Amino acid sequence: MCGIVGYIGKRNAVPIVMEGLKRLEYRGYDSCGIAVLHDNQMDVEKIAGKVDDLQSRLAQAHWASEIAIGHTRWATHGEPDQKNAHPQVSMSGDIAVVHNGIIENFLPLKRELQNNGYNFSSDTDSEVIAALISTAYAGNLEAAVQEALSRIIGAYGIAVLSTREPGKIVCARYGAPLIMGLGKEEFFVASDVAAILAHTKDVIYLDNGEIGILTADGYETLTRKNESISKEVHRVSFDLAAIERGGFEHFMLKEIFEQPQTIYDAMRGRLLPQDGNARLGGIADDIGTILHADQRYFTACGTSWHAALIGEMMFEQFAHLPAEVEYASEFRYREPLVDKRSVIFAISQSGETADTLAAIQEAKSHGATALGICNVVGSSIARETKAGIYIHAGPEIGVASTKAFTSQVTVLTLLTLRLARMMGMSEEQGLEIVESLQKLPEQVEWILNQADRIAKIAQVYAKARNFLYLGRGVNFPVALEGALKLKEISYIHAEGYPAAEMKHGPIALIDEDMPVVFLAPKDKTYDKILSNIQEVKARKGRVIVVATEGDKEIADLADHVIYVPAALAFTAPILNVIPLQLLAYYVAVERGCNVDQPRNLAKSVTVE
Ligand code: F6R
Questions:
Q1: How confident is residue 1, by pLDDT bands cut at 50, 70 and 90?
Q2: Ligand 1 near 301 CB (within 6 A)
Q3: Looking at ligand 1, which atom is closest to the CA of residue 399?
Q4: Is residue 77 over pLDDT 90?
Q5: Which CATH fold would you assign to the domain 450-595?
Q6: Which of 73, 237, 248, 311 qualifies as a FRET site for 504, CA 20 to 30 Å off?
Q7: 110-114, 342-346, 603-607: which range is least confident on average?
Q8: Does residue 375 line the site of ligand 1, with CB under 6 A?
Q9: What value does the mean pLDDT take over residues 430-447?
Q10: How many angstroms separate the alpha carbon of residue 394 from the centre of ligand 1?
Q11: What is the pLDDT confidence band of residue 268, given thresholds at 50, 70 and 90?
């Protein structure tokens, strides 16, 4: 979704901010803009369209300034056109604001300002912030920002420039992520570390209600009550290479191919191979609470919700601990039976998903223990939860989540193993699971070696208009995930179903134009899945099967088979999803789709 980047220092801020905006493109956006201060004058350029187009405009203008803020906007209030793009500038031109988030009470504020003679020039909620700061200004920018923010209900990450104090960027955060980057005689503000990583790895995470003031000589952070506070400086653990494509045509493909390493990283230091167990330091103090809870919930959205479904099944099957999975967006409104004896696991790659954050807040308001399973270190969800487990997948730039999913499931497997051993799983079974986890990176590599073949299969089906994905048990969420991957990047309609449910409706759709992807590993439901395949073939459906290596029988039935190594139920979903990620990727490429930035989608969904 929207992205913010700002710079103040001794270098020309324009190329730095533009490069930062380029790095934020992956979050999804429809318009962009930049404001600079030059000789106490505010220059603003903004467009509906891509950062490259903005860049071309600026190249003609030859702007140079030591202070600038920029923005990529994903439209919420008002069309994605030029007037609604950010920065939003106050009526008198003294204030420019870039804003991520949503101001819920913008309409009454707007009306009040209009009644006092203020003219608005956009449809955005964000312009209200510029207006409030401008009208509150009485000689001190940060005081005016504080005053304006005290009137606002909603979520914001903002950066503000003023012609009245041209050597300063003021930034603030409530509910939308914002970091300050510290360089040598230069300072940055950004909504995402990717925007500034080329310049500094030292960052401060602002907390809700805090304000940052950046000048070329230093920075200060203030609390909501205007008290100066000293904030911890964090060193970002990954390098620039992690957010670059590194020779791959798309970030998504790079991230699919990173999975042998990211799965390994999710387990690193956590497996206890001698004991057939796992150690999870982040939640060590909460393991008893999880074990003895009256209710255990997983909550998440999208792909992370699919990981949650697998977590639920593993909890029940192996640790004999009941759990429930709820869409974060539904959890909050369905008045769940949550109290202080409940544990809620929030699963999120970005750690910024607004619905998931809201679900955590709802659970916490009833006294529940909220734990996080997140990728982004220092993210809002990581900070809102009592404790948690990082999945250590590294930055995920492709909008379609791939490596985060397999790392989430890996971490859920470790958690299940830990709980199951406490619930009486034998050491022998624990050892078997540890062994199968250790094999995963190599097995994933083996599947990835079939990428060229999968690309050829994708060519055959790239023109299909609908796909069905079928699986059973832990492979049902994998089917859902395969369908989601395909629909979001190729715009082909796809649905996932438990295989046996096919007969209860979806079978009506099957004809020679309908590809059906079956997950058919050699497990206890194998024979039943074979019957389902027969049923599809009998109706002339075309069948692609993900099957266990060496299964010859299935090759006679299917149009195409993609083999995966034999695996325990514990690790099967991690392996089985890889061919589906590749299939979706190659179908989208074949159709000429923008794989890394699919239409209408945003990498982190920070609005409810
Ligand atoms: C799908 C995808 C989305 C996210 C969802 C939750 O490929 O990326 O469905 O999984 O928006 O995002 P996080 O995990 O960041 O909370």
A1: confident
A2: yes
A3: 8
A4: no
A5: Rossmann fold (3.40.50)
A6: 311
A7: 603-607
A8: no
A9: 96
A10: 15
A11: very high
* pLDDT tens by residue, 232-264: 999 998 888 888 888 899 999 999 999 999 999
Cα–Cα distances in angstroms (integers) from residue 434 to residues 307, 379, 411, in the given order: 20, 30, 12
Active site residue 603: yes
CA of 246 to the centre of ligand 1 (A): 23
- In this predicted model, what pLDDT tens digit does every residue of 298-313 receive, in sequence order? 999 999 999 999 999 9
Which pLDDT tens digit goes with each residue over 372-409?
Answer: 999 998 889 999 999 999 999 999 999 999 999 999 99
Catalytic residue among 2, 32, 171, 593: 2
Q: Reply yes or no on whether 2 is catalytic.
A: yes
Q: Which one of 27, 301, 377, 491 would you pick to mutate in the ligand 1 pocket, going by the greatest count of ligand atoms within 8 A of its CB?
A: 301
Rounded alpha-carbon distances, angstroms, from residue 539 to 64, 203, 508, 509, 534: 66, 59, 9, 10, 9
**Helix, strand, coil proportions of the chain in percent (round to 5)?**
40, 25, 35
Q: CB–CB of 518/500 below 8 Å?
A: no
What CATH code is assigned to 3-236? 3.60.20.10
Rounded CA-CA distance 543/559 in Å is: 5
| Rounded-to-integer distance, Cα 157 and Cα 140, Å | 20
Pick from 254, 607, 571: nearest CA to 400? 254
Helix (H, G, I), strand (E, B) or coil at 588: helix
Q: Which two tokens stand for residue 464?
A: 């299909």
For ligand 1, what atom is nearest to the CA of residue 376? Answer: 15
Residues carrying CATH 3.40.50.10490, the chain: 243-442, 450-595
**Which mutation among 345, 380, 401 tests ligand 1's pocket best, with the greatest number of atoms within 8 A of CB?**
401
- Positions of E strands within 456-589: 466-471, 493-498, 515-520, 542-548, 560-564
pLDDT score recorded for residue 595? 92
Task: Tell me which architecture the domain covering 243-442 has in CATH.
Answer: 3-Layer(aba) Sandwich (3.40)
Q: Cβ(28) to ligand 1 under 6 A?
A: no
- Which ranges of 234-301 would DSSP assign to H, the alpha helix? 251-257, 259-267, 287-292
For all residues of the chain together, what is the average pLDDT? Answer: 94
Integer Cα distance of 5 and 23 in angstroms: 10
Q: 375 with 407: CB under 8 angstroms?
A: yes
Q: Where in the chain is the domain with CATH 3.60.20.10?
A: 3-236
Pocket test for ligand 1, best of 1, 353, 396 (most atoms within 8 A of CB): 353
Gap between the Cα atoms of 379 and 177, Å rounded: 7
600 pLDDT above the threshold of 90: no
Number of residues that this document lists for the chain: 608
Q: With a 6 A CB cut-off, is 350 part of the ligand 1 pocket?
A: yes
Q: Provide the sign of the torsion angle of the four alpha carbons 521, 442, 398, 457, taken in this order.
A: negative
The burial of 424, by beta-carbon neighbours within 10 Å (0-12 exposed, 13-18 middle, 19 or more buried), is given as: exposed
pTM of the model: 0.86
C-beta 356 within 6 A of ligand 1: yes
Q: Crossing angle of helices 126-136/106-115, nearest 10°?
A: 50
